[in-house]
Amino acid sequence: MSYAYLFKYIIIGDTGVGKSCLLLQFTDKRFQPVHDLTIGVEFGARMITIDNKPIKLQIWDTAGQESFRSITRSYYRGAAGALLVYDITRRETFNHLANWLEDARQHANANMTIMLIGNKCDLSHRRAVSTEEGEQFAKEHGLVFMEASAKTAQNVEEAFISTAATIYKKIQDGVFDVSNESYGIKVGYGGIPGPSGGRDGTSSQAGGCCS
Amino acid sequence: MEKKRANDEFEPGPILPSQSVDRFEFIKQEQNSSEGLSTSRSANEHEREERRIRKWRKIIGVGGSDWKQYVRRKPHVVKKLIRKGIPDCLRGLVWQLISGSRDLLLMNPGVYERHGPGQRSLYNVLKAYSVYDRDVGYVQGMGFLAGLLLLYMSEEDAFWLLVALLKGAVHAPMEGLYLAGLPLVQQYLFQFEQLVKEHSPKLGQHFSEEMINPSMYASQWFITLFSYSFPFPLALRIWDVFLFEGVKVVFKVGLALLKFCHDDLIKLPFEKLIHALRNFPEDAMNPDTLLPLAFSVKVSKRLEELQQEYEKRNGGTLPKAGSTNRLLQAIKHKELSIKPERSNCVQKDDPSPRILH
Fold it and tell me: Domain Rab-GAP TBC: where (chain B) (predicted)?
């Protein structure tokens, strides 16, 4: 199937926060309560539409345990978007965000769009991180923020799509040289080549768009 | 909402039909009560009790959902109610709510049930290993090895087999599979990528063009030695050979799979290729087809050379855990009475929450 653009994503965050379940909900529209442990990396893809243009998302889902970072790190390179996930019912997964962000900033390209996701928001009775804290962290670090539930599908589409919309806007603003695939963006055959205005050097803040 | 029922506690105790044993299986004391009144009084009593239970249920909410909020709003009411006694049919739930244990349970779903016999064995083996080898600790992926072993032997035997494999009792130690940064996995992936190029040059070329590298499909093969997602009969057959011949069979099987599916794989674009490399067809997974093909692939010499090349590139041999040499010496001197040094352990990562998810 032809696409106007292809965006590559990576999903990161502590083990057990629901990265694989978010991906499964997004690509297959289903929830698996007992999901296999991710060893190494998993892959998923889906077509979406932004601004009436077909956009292909290719998503790498990574293992969360610290030991695996040497493997998952190589997937930062060439990613246009990252979903950084924590579990709203486990405080420590929120506390580790800065660590993950440091890793991402070190290994990804500087213009990677990062979406912060507080997953498992269906379990609000077990909440250990308030929505405000999530918002605050996102604001401080220039991330887009949403709470979501891979179980109920709440905000799952929105998270993936608004990340794409942010990337799309950056392309329009000429932030990327789209001919350079290391940004995790590919211009498709059916697509409109390049940004309309060319590179004007103004970079938009990551938090600009969405819900 | 709360109506006073102050007279409750002044009512005489219920008069129950004569039974020898109560609901707690205690033998009942004979009560000398005036007959006659008992029927109407116990009916009254029954109604009152019903009302009390309904009220408690309302306060508690479904499964205890409203309890916390009610306590926060009207602590004095709760205190008084409790002093009057918790209805027996709700006592268990309420005890859990007031002690906070209900929250602990909700915050730790599955922790208790998980420790059924099989899970407990797995936990014990992994815990024992993580205590025994603090340099490695517990790493996701180990559970699949231990799980496989436990199907065929006791916990203690599985533990020692794990030790023998990772510390290298017979073959080269494989602890690097699970040491920080998975250094041995990185080395294996490097070796495998080179071997693919050498054994199936066209496919290797196709992989390069499609930007496919072995970490995308073969990490699991090495980290779990095929015990993660391969059909069981095949995994077991591979393990037979692996234990005797060492890790080279993992390379052989991997290369054989690619050879077997070569003509299909070479036509596929990126996404379909990823899918195909993670979902090999059934006929490829037949041990009697795949293993003879695997045994025909020669890798020993190149594996050694590639290891040296990898070490040269990465500046020296893999980091080895401190305990390796000590253990190897112990094995050589047949002094295998190794005990964990301390019983209270500090682990890198607790094995309990994530086993076999």
Answer: 85-246
- The answer to whether B274 faces chain A, any CB pair under 8 Å, is yes
pLDDT digits (tens, 9 = 90+) for B36-85: 555 566 788 888 889 989 999 999 888 788 888 898 899 888 888 888 88
Q: What DSSP string describes chain A?
A: ---SEEEEEEEEESTTSSHHHHHHHHHHS---SSPPPP-SEEEEEEEEEETTEEEEEEEEEE--SGGGHHHHGGGTTT-SEEEEEEETT-HHHHHTHHHHHHHHHHHS-TT-EEEEEEE-GGGGGG--S-HHHHHHHHHHHT-EEEE--TTT-TTHHHHHHHHHHHHHHHHHTT-S-TT-GGGSEEE-TTS--S-SS--------GGGS--
Q: How far is Cα A75 from Cα B213, in angstroms, rounded to an integer?
A: 11
ipTM: 0.86
Q: Which domain holds residue B78?
A: 35-89
The CATH code of the domain that includes B213 is 1.10.472.80
> Same structural domain for residues B75 and B198?
no
Check if the beta carbon of residue B178 is closer than 8 Å to that of residue B166: yes
Handedness of CA B90, B92, B96, B102 (dihedral sign): negative
Contacts of B279 in chain A (CB under 8 A): none
Residues of A with CB below 8 A from B271's CB? 43, 45, 58
Flag whether B190 is in a domain. yes
Asked whether residue B150 is domain-assigned, the answer is no
The pairing of strands A53-62 and A41-50 is antiparallel
Q: Which chain A residue's Cα is nearest to B219?
A: A40
- Asked if the structure places residue B347 within a domain, the reply is no
Q: pLDDT tens-digit profile of B281-296?
A: 999 999 999 999 999 9
Q: Which residues from B are below 8 Å from A43, CB to CB?
A: 216, 271, 274-275, 278
The pTM (predicted TM-score) of the whole model is: 0.71
The burial class, CB within 10 Å (0-12 / 13-18 / 19+), for B334 is exposed
Number of domains observed in the structure of chain B: 2
